[in-house]
Write a structure and sequence with these properties.
about 150 residues; alpha+beta
């Protein structure tokens, strides 16, 4: 049976201190205590990926005041874990386009958005960030971060 994947964008956000300090933004989901992740969200019909990225950042972290540094070359798909799948019906998982972005110096993160998705956030060195993110996202994050490292950004 063919799987139904939701088109999605995701942001690996570097702090405004980059490149002097290489720390990644991670946020704890407001609906799942202890579930940390990068900001991400669905792509609306007819929307291009960069527009979706900037819209999702505004909706999730209250700012899209970022500089896009790089784009992961491929779409990456994953299946939802059983505990999440029922909430995301009719989708079996997501297919994502990842971007590496840097917060601009004057960017202000505000999680108190119209529909808050995150309860708190922090910036963490790559290895610490990876240890804290949700288990089912970790392999994808490692792959994406390894690519950005290989091409010289991390």
């Amino acid at each position: 049976m063919e799987k139904n994947y939701r088109p999605n964008v995701a942001a690996v956000i570097l702090s405004s201190q980059y490149p002097q300090r290489c720390e990644l933004f991670i946020a704890e989901r407001s609906d799942i205590k202890g579930a940390w992740q990068f900001p991400q969200g669905g792509i609306d019909d007819g929307e291009d990926v960069k527009t979706a990225l900037l819209r999702e950042l505004s909706e999730e972290i209250g700012t899209n005041d970022v500089e896009i540094i790089a784009e992961y070359p491929d779409w990456i798909s994953y299946d939802f874990p059983v505990a999440v799948a029922h909430k995301m019906y009719p989708y079996d998982g997501q297919t994502q386009k990842y971007f590496l972005v840097r917060l601009k110096n004057n960017a202000e993160i505000n999680l108190e958005t119209k529909s808050p998705e995150f309860s708190r956030f922090k910036f963490a060195p790559i290895d610490n960030a990876l240890k804290q993110v949700s288990f089912f996202k970790r392999p994808i994050y490692k792959k994406v971060l390894a690519h950005f490292r290989k091409i010289g950004y991390l």
